[in-house]
Design a protein that fits this description.
Elements lengths: L3 E2 L5 E2 L3 E3 L7 E3 L7 H4 L7 E4 L1 H8 L4 E2 L3 E3 L9 E7 L16 E9 L3 H5 L8 E8 L18 H9 L7 E4 L6 H9 L5 E6 L2 H14 L4 E5 L5 H4 L15 E7 L17 H21 E10 L9 H10 L27
Parallel strand pairs: 5-8, 11-12, 11-14, 12-13, 14-15
Antiparallel strand pairs: 1-2, 3-4, 5-7, 6-10, 8-9, 9-10
Bound molecules: S-adenosylmethionine.
Length: 350
Amino acid sequence: MFQTANTYGITSIPEVGVHTTLPDCVIVGDWNGPSCNDNFNLNCYPEVIVDVLCACAVLRGANIFAPGILGMPHDANEGSIVGVYADLKGKCRRGYTQVFTEEKLFLGTGYVRMDRHTLFDNNASPRGIAVEMIDRISKIPNFTLPSEFGILQNLPSMLCSYMLDVNENTVVLDMCAAPGNKTTHIAALMGNKGTLIAIDKTRDKVERIKDLCDTLGLANVSAYVWDSTQAVSFGKDETENLPPLTAEYFDRILLDAPCSALGNRPQLMNNITVKQLQSYPILQKKLFRNAVKLLKVGGILVYSTCTITIEENENLVCWALDKFPELKLCKQTPMLGSPGFAQVYSVILV
Ligand SMILES: C[S@@+](CC[C@H](N)C(=O)[O-])C[C@H]1O[C@@H](n2cnc3c(N)ncnc32)[C@H](O)[C@@H]1O
């Protein structure tokens, strides 16, 4: 099931096993297929340049989709091997044909599936895979899960759902739910039974949650467009059919807050400003206040982010414990990884 193959016949079977603590987590080993680094002289390949977002996806195991390609030379024909590079400083213009001399990072090699005429002629905007990777410097393989089998997400993300300690009788709220990765995992841990309300403030994203639940056959999720900073105060809303979110209603609440996302890997470049960084704890505190109101006595609230700043993590938790003496910090179960900073420092962003 996890065999990876590309249309040119190169296959590789990464080692696959089940996580010892999380029984629904599959661990996939390194790519052990053929490697350009082992056998080839990189300089002999035409060079394809991709943007940084595309580069990150490639390092995480993706192939290269047409919109991510910035530069491809004339001698890269369909089926030829190319060296793939990231344009680290955003200097490459779309349709570039020469060897790129600005700062770039080698990502791996691949087979061309769309040549430059298909990609760039007459303002073309093709979709689909343009370069199929042979190998990646990250050694992460590409594989596709059958849609009904599940979704790919990071181990720390999976832990959040486990920490909620749900079952079919718990009434659960996911306050910032889209695109629904954790929602669907929680729904599965509830055995596709019971009540799980998923909220996100962006309509398109809520449609994605609904689609994902349909694909996975999950019937215990109700997804709504709503602003979770207003969750309690507005109560029932007729237009969205949102059920009334009354105080102390939920046994379990996940607050997977919008954040600066600095913990997502790989990060090749980040343009976030200090002003943006400073805005997140303000929003996170607004959401947290509502979460506390909605939580039943004896309930569990899991607060999570995918960032590494103390302001959005340890300091936010300290603020919450200080502000809401009724909250008690619980031991993480299951415990994977290492604890955050016990000693919280005063961080001033300037
Ligand atoms: C970190 S993402 C959530 C990821 C999601 N839990 C998952 O695992 O797929 C944060 C989400 O919060 C949503 N969001 C931001 N502000 C919000 C608000 N005030 N109310 C509800 N959702 C909000 C964003 O649209 C975004 O989808």
